[in-house]
Hints:
By secondary structure, the chain is of the alpha/beta class. It has a six-stranded mixed β-sheet. A hairpin with a 2-residue loop joins β26 (about 655-660) and β27.
Amino acid sequence: MASKPPKSDPVQDAPQVTDPKHAAAGLPAIGHTLRIAQQQMGVRRTALTLLRVNQKDGFDCPGCAWPEPEHRHAAEFCENGAKAVAEEATLRRVTPEFFAAHTVTDLAGRSGYWLGQQGRLTHPMYLPEGADRYEPVSWDRAFDIVAEEIKALGSPDEALFYTSGRTSNEAAFLYQLFARELGTNNLPDCSNMCHESSGSALSETIGIGKGSVLLEDLYKADLIIVAGQNPRTNHPRMLSALEKAKANGARIISVNPLPEAGLERFKNPQNPQGMLKGAALTDLFLQIRIGGDQALFRLLNKLILDTQGAVDESFVREHTHGYEEFVEAARAADWDETLTATGLTRAEIEKALAMVLASERTIVCWAMGLTQHKHSVPTIREVVNFLLLRGNIGRPGAGVCPVRGHSNVQGDRTMGIFERPAPAFLDALEKEFGFAPPREHGYDVVQAIRALRDGKAKVFFAMGGNFVAASPDTEVTEAAMRRARLTVHVSTKLNRSHVVTGARALILPTLGRTERDIQAGPNGKGAEQFVTVEDSMGMVHASRGRLEPASTHLLSEPAIVCRLARRVLGEESRTPWEEFEKDYATVRDRIARVIPGFEDFNARVADPAGFTLPHAPRDERRFPTATGKANFTAAPVEFPALPEGRLLLQTLRSHDQYNTTIYGLDDRYRGIKNGRRVVLVNPEDARALRIADESYVDLVSEWKDGVERRAPGFRVVFYPTARGCAAAYYPETNVLVPLDATADTSNTPASKSVVVRLEQSTTD
């Protein structure tokens, strides 16, 4: 039997701390996976559900976006994927009786962990204006409430339509179609907070804002550089791909301010021999100072230019633009400045250079460690420069590999979830659906928060996610949300965003990936539906839930969008919303006519392995940029300045966490148990600041606006971070990230380089 959710909120600032681990997965991962799964689902449901994860006739893991290999293991999931499935397929339920027993004020005082552990939402719930308790509401009345508020707006641009990466391709396409037929491009999404910098840099330099490698390219690579990324927590199945790459002869450089156990040694739980002995993955660990990556790649580029025969001159001549300006900037790279920016030694950089020069096929992988800085876009452009120099784009075993962290976050963007849509996409929508989509850009996440704060937006509708907990500058974000007339969240589980509300609020419970989706079908007699997703490498495949829904009162995301559109847009809309709800194949037919690469969508997705979207730089060495070629760039080198007596803080996940969802209070590989309010500090930095191990401090961020942002009561944990750098978990530290501290060009919150001072805690 599954266990019941915790009644009381556990203390999260009194952890037990041991030494960090130096290997990941293995028997402990199996044991932890089974324990969590059985607590949430029970023994029988665990077996039936986990064996369907990432299988060709099963459902796509609701966790990360790592692609499936061609030959799949019977247990084609990782520890954190199993946790994500268990959280969704849990037997725990949040019913109207739960809301009757808990006021919103009470729930607002609970931790995100406690809220999430209560279980699946079962009924639509409504918080009337002035009330402190949610009450059950019919679906018809819920849609009426949304329609009332939207029709009362002075402009469609006063409504915001946020999307989480969990949303399927079909739901995302319908969602953006509804918003644009309403008359707004206000479609902020979770990409704005994570890989927007990647998309901005790659669109400018290679013409497509996605990675250029497939899974098999990793197996063919000579060198894989993993920069600003922690696979063992954020996308653990990547470790098995790196293990296979190593077995095929690849070498791996890890670039990170923190040592990460999974990149040291991986004990593959799918392989008895690998589980016991494990495979050493990293050949060279560059423990870089936070934000020093652009300087590192710039110097490597200078050294490549200085090495006779190292540049692929034929590729550069035939396929690139801007080379001369780039060379001038790269040759000005300075050793002393680079050593200061990176914290590395000359010997370490020279060793990395030797590995680069010995490689004919190089891949660079990255995640949030590169994308969430003020200078993130120039940093990723410099990574592209690095690959272009030696012809490492459009070659098997080589290319750019931004690793998306959330299942289908990339697919949502492909489907048109973007506040700055391309004119060609809008032209295709207009031709297919017969209405004129708005052409003015909408709000991204940061702009949406400002709009709510300033009274320019009044309705906030979220398709999945936990916007309040995920966003920066927590106090500002929460105050902004409370200024809304109406906040609506389409959700599977309770989270912080449900208790930080506008004047009125709705919680609309939806089907999860694991659950069977039955709609009327083309003949009205009932037909099982499937949805599709796009993984981090541009592969599209079907996902079919198999479990009975958690409640008979749930609607699917496509059904919610279709019914909402009919209620809001009324008879004036010529879009066949009722037909789309009945049969998702009709949605895919329209996608096929609007979005390039999805031709014959229904026929191609019938292949159990799915299909690969075209990628001109990878497939043809054709670069659809403004110049028609891959663009070298020459931005000035930037890195964060660190005032004396301060540290650079990066926010990160614990191992018992996926985005804002907290599965448990342990971070097994970092040696932290039963606690989250911890700050990891290099012992030498701590001694210089006269801070003792196990003491308690307040984290106070310092930014140019002079506003004090404080996160109180964090236990200091001595940890082998890079000098001058510290780390702590989000969302607890999102309060320290100023709303206006964002990346140039992409406007992504700069959550990985926050200047902080540590003050003796008053809660000690």
